[in-house]
Write a structure and sequence with these properties.
With 227 residues, the chain is α/β, with parallel strands linked by helices. The chain is built from nine helices and eight strands. Strands 1, 2, 3, 4, 5, 6, 7 and 8 form an eight-stranded parallel sheet that branches.
Length: 227
Amino acid sequence: MNNALNPYAGKVVAVAIKKGGTGKSLISLNIAPELKPDTFYDTDPTPAVTTFNGFRDESIRWNVVRLTDDMENVVDRFIADVLEAKEKGQTILVDCGGFDSSITRAAVALADLIISPLKDDPSDILGLHEFSKVLDEISAELGEKKIAHVVMNKVPPNRRNYSDIDNYIAQFDNLVRMETAIPMDKAAPQQFGQGMGVVEHMTTRYSNVGNAMRSLFLDMRNAIEKV
């Protein structure tokens, strides 16, 4: 994509929340076709991105870089590489693990857009509360306010009212909810056998979840333009 037309050029998008099982890797793999990342970092202990990327046709595989906390000087190298990529106008996507780690904190600190998938579940709500604390700590260290954009994920297809979630999120000054919610849909994981996002496959592009993903892309563009 021409950088002049690419709203994500020189930007870092991190998919992160301090809770496992919210669908971070699912969201990461499904927003990749929108971002077209030059580098796609897989920092989750469960290497879903790396695994499913291997199922893609070789000609369309993402440039996935696998990072784990036990690698030597991993955080310093990660920060240096991402800063260099930003200077070159490249797009970076980071799939973070569901727990607090040095790599996740570095990714959040570097991110221009933080996406936090959230299921409609009490334990996930608790994870959001904890992630808000992490954002506060990172913001204090940077002297810069870090805000996460919450995406309701795997919600019942007939749910339209999120006032309860909005009322909860309103108590935090570093969390905002994106308008689009991603519904539960069997179509979402079906394409993972080919390593494909739902918008990449004709059979799922115009499904409920495919339409929701394209709506999420618009939300993301609106958010990144404000950076």
